[in-house]
Description:
Chain A has about 325 residues and is mainly α. Chain A has helices at about 1-10, 10-40, 45-65, 65-90, 95-120, 145-150, 155-170, 175-185, 185-190, 195-220, 235-245, 250-270, 280, 285-295. With about 525 residues, chain B is of the alpha/beta class.
Amino acid sequence: MDILNWIVSASGEGFFSATMRLAVPLLLAAIGAIYAERAGAINVGLEGMMLSSALSAALVASSTGSTTTGLLAGVVTGVGVAALLAIFTVLLPADPVVVGISLNLLAVGGTSFIFRVAVGQAGTTSTTPVIEASPIPGLDQIPILGPLLFDQSYLVYIALLGVVVTWLVLKYTGWGLLIRSAGEHPAAVDSLGLSVNRTRFLALLVSGGFAGLGGAFLSLVASNQFVENMTAGRGYIAMAILILGQRSPWGVLIASLIFGAGDAFQLRAQLDNTGIPFQFLLMIPYVLTIVTLAVFGRKLIDPAALGKHFRRGHR
Amino acid sequence: MTLSSTQNAAAEPILRVQDSTVRFGSVVANDRVSFDLKPGEIHALLGENGAGKTTLMRVLAGLLQPDEGTLFLSGTPTTFHSVADSSAAGIGMVHQHFMLVKTMTVAENVSLGLKSAGRFFPNIARVGRELRALSEQHGLALDPNARVSDLSIGQQQRVEILKTLYRGANILILDEPTAVLTPGETDSLLELLRSLTEQGTSIIFISHKLREIRAIADRVTVLRHGKSISTFSLDQTDDATLTSAMIGRDTAPAVYNATATVRPRLEAVPRLELHGLSVTDRRGHTTLDSISFSVQPGEIFGIAGVDGNGQSELADVLSGVRRASAGSLELDGTDISSLGVAARITSGIAHVPEDRQSTGLILDLSIADNLAMETVGIAPLSKRGTLDRAAVRENALRIISEFDIRCSGPDQAVRELSGGNQQKVLLARAVTRSPRVLIVSQPTRGVDLGAVENIHRQILELAASGCAVVLISTELDEVLALASRVAVIYSGALLATYDRADVDLGTIGMNMAGQAA
């Protein structure tokens, strides 16, 4: 069989490895957004959080020489941008979509500006240290699963762990109950003397932290540098993944792998000289996003209070 | 205050509020209200809409702090700063709209934020087991692992009650708990409440249904216009005393409709005739139950009743916003049941909806535009399909002076007007079309006294000019002041119809509480 031969070939292994590498930033951002949206807070600012974190992670890693410090800087940046979003949308409150989009636009201009100031000359790339793959001995030899799961950087293992932890938190912890209740029936939370807004604020910060990891992955793992607008809409794709995955951790994992595979396929197809103009291939992830939202967006049941600001005494 | 004859008569009140006053701006919602609850007692709160029941309840539940007055918990003065304080004191509230997360299980709902279940990893399974035991103790079958959305309304209410009990409440406040229940569910709720008091729970039961209060409560405190009128022991008080305390017989209005007591001349064909109009909602409940009446030209037909008994549905089905599931509607002998809203407007039916801000007016548009809205496509406001702005403005100027609408001019946004002046705009739009039928709902809700008189005069003048008016109002005084015939609506059906001259306040009060005369 050609397929079987291809799977175990170098080209096949490369495909699966690339799938995971391309899926993980999406997965990280989407996992975090589960917390926010299940609590009723829309996070449209994923793109801006990822992009800001990609820059700060690259700058800190190249100046300190430590990828771990860079990674931490990425997380802190993500949480910081999320705090800004939370102040505007939870406390004030402004429209979450408008604020989110504004932050995304601010991040595009802001990161380009800071990057040019930092590296001195527009277009010049600064090479940063890279988080290398840490293969798990033995397991990385398994066909398909080996390259997919066990021959990756530790950030990939963190992302996969994030799926399991998120599932546990939502299902079994008191905070998980609070998050789900705040998203479905905030008045019930309030009637028990608990704070809806504090729950949503914290959930947004967690979302920012995960988006920060996703952004840092782009500049520290997937490449060795920051490139202007390097997220290229991945924050928005993560929102589509959130919907395709029905805001459940496992669903989001599968959905991000599908998108990762789509992206890996188009990269491979560009290299393989298929004769398809590369512009069409580049469109694949975005077309997938639109199709996903059109097909699955309608069937999804949103948390009942998603995007609705909670005011005491108003139903 | 009448002394209770129950065995608890001498007991120290477990909860007492003395001279509680709550103000919202210039509105006094509770005016020196006093109330006390004895251990193991069911104490009902009776009153019309806006009498101050909800405000008192929110004070007791820690949702509101009174501006004046004192709260006593077993004799000790207390202040509740929040729900957390009141629930720590053992007060649990069962809201009319349940505070349950539908997508979660019963046990998860009960565990939410509950410290005794475990702060980080609540032992939901243990809560579930204890909840099952608690429900069996009260003779209820309750599956703690059931998803709330799979339960009936009656079951959800039981979950709410068990939730507050499990979380340590020994004082239950139930806000109109039977409003959402079927008669069968109501009976089992009353049975449950009775068994709870036997086990030491004290209950505050808010209702405007006399039958239920009589069936279950030991004492009843009647509220009217924000004041606590009196507390009665139920076995020493008859229904007539209670209803007159609720309605305030001494403040019954003078009839200032000079023609109201004179029956209008009977035409062979009435202006408006309803034959068994019924409405069934999406859940299959009958919200309007075979309504039949007729209105003569020049007559004001009043519909009294407590809020939420089918008034909105009746207005909607008459104006054409909602389709009747059965029955027919005739205008001057012609069946108009199948006509839509626009066609009904053209055929001469005007509607003043109960909620002027969300359905009556477009708040951000000018007075002139709001006044033009129903007749915008026809002369004189439009010529050859284009709006004549000058005519629209002139129309508004004329109406503003005629109806005494206090504003800066026709271009002022309706949002900036007072409630009374907004209502005048809405009514003027209907009246100036010289309609054949006017359906007017809650015409003076939230309107200052000066505007009330103006609005009432407009309705009377319109009727005098030959229009048939259907006046739907929860303000009994208003209905009695304007209507020549009065019907009482209760759970979607007309319970009784009276000529204004024959109205007895006591009977009508009992009708409003669901008692047939």
